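Morning F.,

Quick status update on the modeling queue. The single chain you submitted on Monday has been processed. Sequence for confirmation:
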Amino acid sequence: MSEDQLVSALTGRCPACNDGATRHWGKKFACELWRCRRCGAIFCVKSSDSTDSRTLYERYHDAARFSLAPTVEASLERLASLAERARVTGRWLDFGYGEGGLLEVAQRRGWACYGVEISRSMLDYGSRKGWTVTSDPRGDPRLVDGTFDVVTMIEVLEHVADPVCLLSDAARWLRSGGLLYVTTPNARGLNCRILGRAWSVVCPPQHLILWTPRALCVALARAGFGTWRLRAEGFNPAEILAWLRGGQSAAEGVNRYQSGLALSAALERSRVRRIAKAVVNRGLSALRLGDTLKVWASRAA
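Structure tokens below.
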């Protein structure tokens, strides 16, 4: 446990900005939740008797299908295309690569792929694909400081007890001018504002912190990132509609991931729908109301 993490556990300090001005936000799944008055992040303090991360995620991908929905693959292809401008060493590190969809796309484009995972089955899968994979990134000599063009963390930061430490690691692994790309749920988004603790994304102890735009910017600055671009995009109304029809129990019956895929597929069926989606996303991002925060960042020189 790092010093910041220990202080947070003892005092309830915010893991994003390290401020102690927090207020109780409620309780869910026997976990006490707090909201930072400074940056707005929502977090739970992971107690010493909490389930170990390795135990929690060891079987996380047991139902892996190793296939990508067309809309997901198209999104990853767009990300990989944007990352081309950062290519110098040709090394890409994906932290929490899961079923490996992003690294598959990067590998097809000629990147040397590195990945971090906890699940033994996913580590074995990554090795078979020819990637350099590890469950101990800080202790693995193959992850050399300052040698990566791209570090990605897709839906990872919400799971981490000491996120600023992880972001600092990313800054160290990246070469000067390299790209960090992060996505994470938005605690200021429409779903969280309307549903509050009933939103399925509020699920401690799997999700230890829900970020706000301000919290993420403060954490990036603390970790040594000098420039970044942040967007807040996407809105899936399925849980809200279910909640309005049948209350919290109905909302809990919604599969957020599958309903999100169905919505994305529906919006891609015509040019008019794609334009409408882009316009809505611009509005959501301008108001910081989208369900997902997306950040492109570069390490300070």
